[in-house]
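As a representative case, the lines below give one protein's residues and fold tokens.
***
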Amino acid sequence: MLQIKALQETDPQWEQVCAYAAACSWKAGPFLAKDMTEHLFTGWERVFAAYINEEIAGYCTLARKDCIPDVPYSPYIGYMFVDEKYRGRRLSQKLIQCAMAYAGELGFSRVYLVSGEKGLYEKYGFTKLEEREDIWGNKEQIFSAAL
């Protein structure tokens, strides 16, 4: 059974998700774990964790900013990851839907995300706004979706 939880630092699953991100196969996972241990998710920001039969299957975040400096956009869905053994079940879509619903509850009218992927987020209603250089010097796309 699928369950998606919106976590903040005080939740009991926080450390479990942090450890999972640190050890996951995706190169950005350890960066999420570092952000979590350094208390960088504050206020309304959340880590969304997908569980299948109480096992972590993936995660994403909703945060004020992402890896592209000096842009007027917020909030961002970021750190999107689905475990290899759970891919093909539309977990990315379900995580995005939960993050978008939460952003709507907060009063936002749009959400943004940064990705180098082409054709992935468009199928979830996102449109490309522009390309910018991220903090590591890579060219990335900024996408937006209305809530």
